[in-house]
From TrEMBL:
Residues 15-83 form the HTH gntR-type domain. GO terms for molecular function: DNA binding; DNA-binding transcription factor activity. Transmembrane segments: none annotated. The keyword Transmembrane does not apply. This is GntR family transcriptional regulator.
Length: 248
């Protein structure tokens, strides 16, 4: 049986090699034809194809496995999931400092905080917890006072004991967890989608009901992969856009 043939790429040494390889493979998988075989070449073959080490290749494959695009079987090999289709979320590489800088020039009002049961939407992130700490904040433009977004953060209870509310009025939760609480953040996964403003969002952001907004979900994990914080933010659609810059 003929094995799957991924596209070739020129690697950029400014970005992690595993990330570039995983994104290239991901594009090849989602862009394959129905006639292409489901079995991938071996780790060694793929590493040779991309000119990287086997360890780097394994890290790239683990990324695709975590996303559900491939399955790996000992002695049998690595296979593309037949259900893998176009339309899976695009993953972008950034930094915590970029997230912090994005929220500069804003004032923050703490609308509420406390504890809440783990909802069905949060269960996949906190499977072992019954409740999480919650923080609800409204951000406004520093110059005009116009509301720009409102955010809800869902944080592990043991971390909440070390969070100062005054810090949340100055900084994003990500910076508080990293620089104040002292957590080592390994990865943040961002998802952005278009939605319509519900009654609460319309009231807080001072926009018409059902007007377009950007719905953002950010999942922060430590270096072991454990979820520390889930941020759900509603941005005004007339004040924000989603821009991606790629280094070619």
């Amino acid at each position: 049986m003929t094995s799957f043939a991924p596209d070739s790429i020129v690697l950029n040494r400014k970005l992690p090699l595993w990330y570039q390889v995983s994104q290239s493979l991901r594009a090849s998988i989602l862009g394959r034809s129905q006639e292409d075989p489901l079995r991938l070449p071996t780790e060694e073959q793929l590493a040779g194809h991309y000119g990287v080490s086997v360890l780097t290749m394994r890290q790239a494959l683990k990324e695709l496995e975590d996303e559900g695009l491939i399955t790996r079987h000992r002695r049998r090999g690595t296979f593309i999931e037949p259900s893998a289709q176009r339309g899976a979320p695009v993953r972008l590489l950034g930094s915590v400092d970029a997230i912090v800088a994005q929220q500069s020039g804003m004032t923050t009002e703490l609308l509420g905080h406390g504890k809440a049961p783990v909802s069905a939407e949060l269960a996949e992130y906190f499977p072992e917890l019954d409740e999480v700490a919650t923080y609800h904040r409204l951000r406004s433009d520093e110059k005009t006072g116009e509301p720009t977004n409102h955010a809800r953060n869902y944080v592990r209870p043991e971390l909440a004991e070390r969070i100062d509310l005054e810090d949340l009025a100055r900084w994003p939760m990500t910076k508080v967890l990293r620089d104040v609480v002292g957590m080592r953040i390994g990865r943040i996964t961002d998802t952005v989608e278009a939605r319509l403003a519900d009654p609460e969002t319309a009231r807080l952001l001072e926009v018409p009901l059902l007007s377009p907004i950007l719905h953002y979900t950010g999942v922060a994990r430590d270096e072991s992969g454990q979820v520390l914080d889930v941020a759900v933010i509603q941005y005004r659609g007339d004040r924000f856009s989603f821009t991606v810059t790629l280094d070619a």
